[in-house]
Write the structure tokens for this entry.
Amino acid sequence: MGDISDGVPRKEQLGRYGENWHQKAFLVKSDDEPGLLSAARVEQFHGTSMGLNNYVDGQAALDLSYETPQPCAVIVKHTAASYATDQNQVKALERSWQTDPEASFGSVIAFNRPLELETARVITERPDAEGKIGWFVEVIYAPDYDDGVLDYINASKGPGKKNLRVLKTGPFSELHQADQELRYIPGAVFVQDRDSTLYLLGGNDSTELLSLSTPIVMQDDNSGKDLTVGVVTERQPESSPGLVDFVIRGVKHTKSNAITIARELGPGRYQQIGQGVGQRKRNKSTRDAIESAAEVLALEYRIGAGQGSVFENAMIESQRVEINGSVNRHILSFAEPSEETYVFSVLQRSVLGSDAFYFSF
């Protein structure tokens, strides 16, 4: 790795190219802040050298996984994330992958718990959308790896392992996020405080806020503006306060104008099913989020109805009993619910989050 020693920057060329094929990229790394959560300060156990996009997506995945209290799987491609939590790591991965299996091709995955052997097997042995063995994943980040995981990954260079980069951050409890971040334009570097709070009440402990049936209007100390935070619809979520916390955390890590849609699958088990990213108009982001959520749920309906392809069934194998059971519990009153009915019913019980004002369209 490139570093700075004795005040002299040293740089290392990254991979074959930078952000695009025709660009060269170099890494200059500083070790002047011990314990920093950084995609570049890791121990690599497997795979070829990292590229610029791997590091950028890796940092996005690490930041979101670090801030999530529940065990999670975060899949990032071009800094956009799919995201799920579950005490069962394989189920968290499956639900995150389900959000957009096509976009997850060539992605970076971060876990906030040690990587389990069964999770590694899912990534390297499950068929992809074309029936080939192994989901094409560029990088795995994890605080640590359970016994046998690294031996398993290093044992052979099968299709699911050939280009997989495996990286260890160390325990999250010993790491901290940066207080500031840099932005560069030619001739200038900007330094700003990092967006380190989920709400404007300080830190990520937002239970008190989310338990309120009406939103809070508060004055932001920095801007002096009155800001409204919380549930702004007349209808309150039917789920636990943790789902609102989950959906807003997803919004925070989505490029504005940002919209995310998420649902609760059980206590502490949440899945982001829709996302609208980086649109100039918020209503366009909203439409994108609804459309992507409808696609996720239509896929789920096909699997539950026995109409899924071999790949679709294998993709969320450990979830299939649940798909035919508890997830469908709210539509069992329908004798033969259609795909449209199923999608609409689940969306009705989901929560939509926005990173700024929200308006009807």
